[in-house]
């Protein structure tokens, strides 16, 4: 690493950016003032809050011209670092506040040259090109602010990427002198090389109080889960590499290791994995038969066979997005921290791992919608049916009375019987579409049909004839407030059976709810895509094989994605639903309730956790129980138990 002489068009990237209105002002100023006033104009170019840089001129913004700060021997030294730090203990999220874009604001301290009392710098390399590139990328991003009072996260301009170039004590003293240090609260340090061979430290040795560390080389002992960020070690040799696009077809290697100079214990573990898995793992190392130099640095070998590096890595999109440059590494780090601070607006698994070209019919995740979706589009009612035509027609008639109904989609799940003729269907004021399925599967109700054009979906069984239009309209209004939740009517609960040592499904009246059944529930159509294409393990096939528990599976899926409980609406408890008293329904099977408990245990095993959340509340309309004229209530016919 070395000191850079490369700057952006604004000068060095770590200098606070100029606002547009100021830029226009000074362009105009330069065109009308005399040459003798230009110096004054350049003086005013810089924010006045940064007194140390107020007298810099445009052609002298160099690290060599940064203010010189002498560190007294008695300067305070931060504590070693609190290994117990987590976001809720060592990070002040209230500094971030609420903003419509759900994006943290990052302030970069202005350049300063720190030296000890004898004038010796705290670093042998000064500002490296890599750290300058990192700060440049951040200052050009939407995360950046030049207003220190608006900042949520602070990044020192002190380069600690390579610990080998640092004087540990003096660097720590320099950090403690930063004006907003406050024991490292809300400060972020980037370090890639905490030490050198052969031992390699696993974390930066510079005492840093509570500062977050984006580091390369963490161990389980030094990484603070959910607080620090583990980053790759950037290689300048990769800057000029042109990566070929991944060729179609399955990848040849499941795991590929191309890192050189790995600790001997790690290397031994990889060798053991190679022996167990054979060709599934490709273990590369330096090429001993090639002369050293830049050319050999871009080669890797295995048993005499030479591979081009990094072309052999295959995962081209991941490389470009997260590893290829200091910009990619820096902005990815900030996005990870941003997701922790604004979890409700965090990137999904798909957004992190799928290339941008992978799109699901332009469907939006409800986690990224406006706070309240507009009322105008309404909802699509999806009715799953087999052959209960009379009951189906009654359900269609009742649903058609709901003001916000936009379309009604009937999923005809009977392959042995055709649906009624068009002339026999109820006449309603919205489009009615019948979709015939190829197989009788419960999962057909959650397929992302092209006919579903609204974001809101009402899943409803063909025997739910008791819900009033007020109840359904109110449920839709609640969903608009919480578009990432399951919002429904039949509430159920999961319990832990201590005697049996497993989960149990409970449908009795209780004070708690952890599921709402999709025999009558609103949800975002995004979850149809997740259910159909991203359901973990064999859950979807298991549901179809057992003809049970598709509703429980959907509850698991939504709770696992959002970390939130469903919302039960209105007081009604009695439903003609799959596990109630339907004459020709699934509940005649005596094993039905037992299977429901088996479902919960099966799904918890596949998910690897119990994502369902228990709540003790429901949503009811304001005034619905008040002694108030019915005609003045928004939802007068809310039903009874």
TrEMBL record:
Keywords carried by this UniProt record: Coiled coil, Disulfide bond, Endoplasmic reticulum, Glycoprotein, Glycosyltransferase, Golgi apparatus, Manganese, Membrane, Metal-binding, Signal-anchor, Transferase, Transmembrane, Transmembrane helix
EC number from the UniProt entry: 2.4.1.224
Pfam families: Exostosin_GT47, Glyco_transf_64
GO cellular component: endoplasmic reticulum membrane; Golgi apparatus
Location within or outside the cell: Endoplasmic reticulum membrane; Golgi apparatus, cis-Golgi network membrane
Regions that span the bilayer: 24-46
Domain (Exostosin GT47) ranges: 101-316
Cofactor: Mn(2+)
Coiled-coil ranges per UniProt: 256-283
UniProt-listed InterPro entries: Exostosin, Exostosin_GT47, GT64_dom, Nucleotide-diphossugar_trans
EC top class named in words: transferase
Keyword Disulfide bond: yes
Predominant cellular place of this UniProt entry's protein: endoplasmic reticulum
GO molecular function: glucuronosyl-N-acetylglucosaminyl-proteoglycan 4-alpha-N-acetylglucosaminyltransferase activity; glucuronosyltransferase activity; metal ion binding
Keyword flag tRNA-binding: no
Protein family per UniProt: Belongs to the glycosyltransferase 47 family.
PANTHER family documented for this protein: ACETYLGLUCOSAMINYLTRANSFERASE (PTHR48261), EXOSTOSIN GLYCOSYLTRANSFERASE 2 (PTHR48261:SF5)
Oligomer and partners: Part of the heparan sulfate polymerase, a dimeric complex composed of EXT1 and EXT2. Could also form homooligomeric complexes. Interacts with NDST1. Interacts with GALNT5.
Function: Glycosyltransferase forming with EXT1 the heterodimeric heparan sulfate polymerase which catalyzes the elongation of the heparan sulfate glycan backbone. Glycan backbone extension consists in the alternating transfer of (1->4)-beta-D-GlcA and (1->4)-alpha-D-GlcNAc residues from their respective UDP-sugar donors.
Protein name (database record): Exostosin-2
């Amino acid at each position: 690493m070395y000191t850079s002489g490369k700057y952006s068009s604004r000068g060095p990237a770590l200098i606070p950016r100029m606002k547009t209105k100021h830029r226009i002002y000074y362009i105009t100023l330069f065109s009308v003032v005399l040459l003798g006033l230009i110096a004054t104009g350049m003086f005013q170019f810089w924010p006045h809050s940064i007194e140390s840089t107020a007298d810099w001129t445009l052609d002298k913004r160099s690290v060599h011209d940064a203010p010189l700060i002498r560190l007294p021997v008695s300067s305070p030294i931060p504590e070693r670092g609190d290994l117990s730090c987590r976001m809720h203990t060592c990070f002040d999220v209230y500094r971030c506040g609420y903003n419509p874009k759900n994006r943290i604001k990052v302030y970069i301290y202005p350049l300063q040259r720190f030296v000890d009392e004898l004038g010796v710098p705290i670093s042998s390399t000064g500002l490296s090109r890599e750290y300058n590139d990192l700060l440049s990328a951040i200052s050009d991003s939407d995360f950046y602010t030049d207003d220190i009072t608006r900042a949520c996260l602070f990044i020192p301009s002190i380069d600690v990427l390579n610990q080998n170039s640092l004087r540990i004590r003096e660097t720590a003293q320099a950090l403690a002198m930063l004006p907003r240090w406050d024991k490292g609260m809300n400060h972020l340090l980037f370090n890639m090389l905490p030490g050198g061979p052969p031992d390699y430290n696993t974390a930066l040795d510079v005492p840093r109080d509570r500062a977050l560390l984006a580091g390369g080389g963490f161990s389980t002992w030094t990484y603070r889960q959910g607080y620090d960020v583990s980053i790759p070690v950037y290689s300048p040799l990769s800057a000029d590499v042109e990566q070929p696009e991944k060729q179609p077809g399955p990848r040849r290697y499941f795991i590929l290791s191309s890192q050189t100079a790995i600790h001997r214990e790690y290397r031994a573990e990889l060798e053991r994995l190679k022996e167990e898995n054979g060709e599934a793992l490709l273990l590369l190392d330096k090429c001993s038969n090639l002369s050293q130099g830049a050319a050999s640095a871009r080669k890797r070998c295995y048993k005499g066979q030479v591979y081009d590096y990094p072309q052999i890595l295959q995962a081209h999109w991941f490389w470009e997005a997260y590893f290829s440059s200091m910009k990619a590494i820096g902005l990815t780090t900030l996005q990870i921290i941003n997701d922790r601070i604004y979890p409700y607006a965090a990137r999904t698994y798909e957004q992190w791992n799928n290339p941008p070209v992978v799109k699901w019919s332009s469907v939006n995740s409800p986690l990224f919608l406006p706070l309240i979706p507009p009322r105008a589009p309404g909802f699509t009612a999806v009715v799953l049916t087999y052959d209960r035509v009379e009951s189906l027609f009654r359900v269609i008639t009742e649903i058609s009375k709901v003001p916000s109904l936009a379309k009604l989609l009937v999923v005809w799940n009977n392959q042995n019987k055709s649906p009624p003729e068009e002339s026999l269907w109820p006449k309603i004021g919205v489009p009615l579409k019948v979709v015939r399925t190829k197989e009788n599967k419960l999962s057909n109700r959650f397929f992302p049909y092209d006919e579903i054009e609204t974001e809101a979906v009402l899943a409803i069984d063909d025997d739910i004839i008791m819900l009033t239009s007020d109840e359904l309209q109110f449920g839709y209004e609640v969903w608009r407030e919480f578009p990432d939740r399951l919002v429904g009517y039949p509430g159920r609960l999961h319990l832990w059976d201590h005697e049996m040592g497993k989960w149990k499904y409970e449908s009795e009246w209780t004070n708690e709810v952890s599921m709402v059944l999709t025999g009558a529930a609103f949800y975002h159509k995004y979850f149809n895509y997740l259910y159909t294409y991203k359901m973990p393990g064999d859950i979807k096939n298991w549901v179809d094989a057992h003809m049970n528990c598709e509703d429980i599976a959907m509850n698991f899926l939504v709770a696992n994605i959002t970390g939130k409980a469903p919302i039960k609406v209105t007081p009604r408890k009695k439903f003609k639903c799959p596990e109630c008293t339907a004459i020709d329904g699934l509940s005649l099977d005596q094993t039905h309730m037992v299977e429901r408990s088996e479902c919960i245990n099966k799904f918890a095993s596949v998910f690897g956790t119990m994502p369902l959340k228990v709540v003790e509340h429901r949503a009811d309309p304001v005034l619905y129980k008040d002694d108030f004229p019915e005609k003045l209530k928004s939802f007068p016919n809310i039903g009874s138990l």
